[in-house]
Design brief:
elongated; mainly alpha; 2 domains; single chain; 3 helices; 34% helix
Length: 89
Protein backbone atom coordinates (compact mmCIF):
# COMPACT_ATOMS: atom_id res chain seq x y z
CA UNK A 1 0.00 0.00 0.00
CA UNK A 2 1.29 3.44 -0.93
CA UNK A 3 0.92 6.26 1.53
CA UNK A 4 -0.39 9.39 -0.13
CA UNK A 5 -0.71 12.88 1.16
CA UNK A 6 -3.61 14.92 -0.17
CA UNK A 7 -2.41 18.46 0.34
CA UNK A 8 -3.28 21.32 -1.97
CA UNK A 9 -2.81 25.07 -1.83
CA UNK A 10 -5.74 27.43 -1.49
CA UNK A 11 -6.03 30.69 -3.44
CA UNK A 12 -3.85 32.50 -0.91
CA UNK A 13 -1.09 29.89 -1.20
CA UNK A 14 -1.74 28.27 2.18
CA UNK A 15 -1.57 24.49 2.41
CA UNK A 16 -4.89 22.72 2.95
CA UNK A 17 -4.83 19.14 4.24
CA UNK A 18 -8.33 18.29 5.48
CA UNK A 19 -10.32 16.13 3.08
CA UNK A 20 -13.38 18.41 2.92
CA UNK A 21 -11.36 21.48 1.91
CA UNK A 22 -9.23 19.48 -0.52
CA UNK A 23 -12.33 18.05 -2.19
CA UNK A 24 -13.90 21.52 -2.41
CA UNK A 25 -10.71 22.90 -3.96
CA UNK A 26 -10.63 20.17 -6.66
CA UNK A 27 -14.37 20.55 -7.34
CA UNK A 28 -13.93 24.28 -7.87
CA UNK A 29 -10.82 23.74 -10.03
CA UNK A 30 -12.54 21.30 -12.40
CA UNK A 31 -15.72 23.37 -12.48
CA UNK A 32 -13.75 26.37 -13.73
CA UNK A 33 -11.68 24.21 -16.10
CA UNK A 34 -14.56 22.36 -17.74
CA UNK A 35 -17.22 25.06 -17.91
CA UNK A 36 -17.20 27.74 -20.59
CA UNK A 37 -17.31 31.23 -19.09
CA UNK A 38 -20.75 32.78 -19.34
CA UNK A 39 -22.22 30.15 -21.67
CA UNK A 40 -24.79 27.73 -20.31
CA UNK A 41 -25.44 25.99 -23.59
CA UNK A 42 -22.36 24.75 -25.45
CA UNK A 43 -24.25 25.00 -28.77
CA UNK A 44 -24.26 28.78 -28.35
CA UNK A 45 -20.48 28.95 -28.43
CA UNK A 46 -18.81 29.54 -31.76
CA UNK A 47 -16.52 26.69 -32.73
CA UNK A 48 -13.25 27.49 -34.48
CA UNK A 49 -11.48 24.79 -36.43
CA UNK A 50 -7.94 24.73 -37.70
CA UNK A 51 -7.22 25.18 -41.37
CA UNK A 52 -6.12 21.97 -43.12
CA UNK A 53 -2.36 21.51 -43.18
CA UNK A 54 -2.42 20.06 -46.69
CA UNK A 55 -4.23 22.04 -49.41
CA UNK A 56 -6.83 20.25 -51.55
CA UNK A 57 -5.35 18.78 -54.71
CA UNK A 58 -6.26 20.37 -58.02
CA UNK A 59 -8.27 18.37 -60.56
CA UNK A 60 -5.16 17.97 -62.72
CA UNK A 61 -3.21 16.54 -59.78
CA UNK A 62 -6.00 14.01 -59.15
CA UNK A 63 -6.05 12.99 -62.82
CA UNK A 64 -2.27 12.57 -62.89
CA UNK A 65 -2.33 10.44 -59.75
CA UNK A 66 -5.09 8.21 -61.16
CA UNK A 67 -3.09 7.74 -64.37
CA UNK A 68 -0.10 6.58 -62.30
CA UNK A 69 -2.09 3.87 -60.49
CA UNK A 70 -0.75 0.38 -61.16
CA UNK A 71 -3.14 -2.25 -62.46
CA UNK A 72 -3.52 -5.86 -61.33
CA UNK A 73 -2.52 -4.98 -57.77
CA UNK A 74 -4.50 -5.71 -54.62
CA UNK A 75 -6.84 -2.98 -53.49
CA UNK A 76 -6.21 -0.86 -50.42
CA UNK A 77 -8.37 -0.45 -47.34
CA UNK A 78 -11.19 1.01 -49.46
CA UNK A 79 -11.41 -2.32 -51.36
CA UNK A 80 -11.60 -0.52 -54.72
CA UNK A 81 -9.33 -1.98 -57.37
CA UNK A 82 -7.32 0.55 -59.35
CA UNK A 83 -9.01 -0.63 -62.56
CA UNK A 84 -12.36 0.66 -61.28
CA UNK A 85 -10.88 4.02 -60.35
CA UNK A 86 -9.24 4.35 -63.77
CA UNK A 87 -12.52 3.42 -65.46
CA UNK A 88 -14.18 6.35 -63.70
CA UNK A 89 -16.32 4.53 -61.16
Amino acid sequence: MVNRTNIVKDYKGHLVADSHSTLAKWRNYFFQLLNVNGVNDVRQREIHTAQPLVPEPSPSQVELTIEKLKTLKSSGIDKMPSEMIKAGW
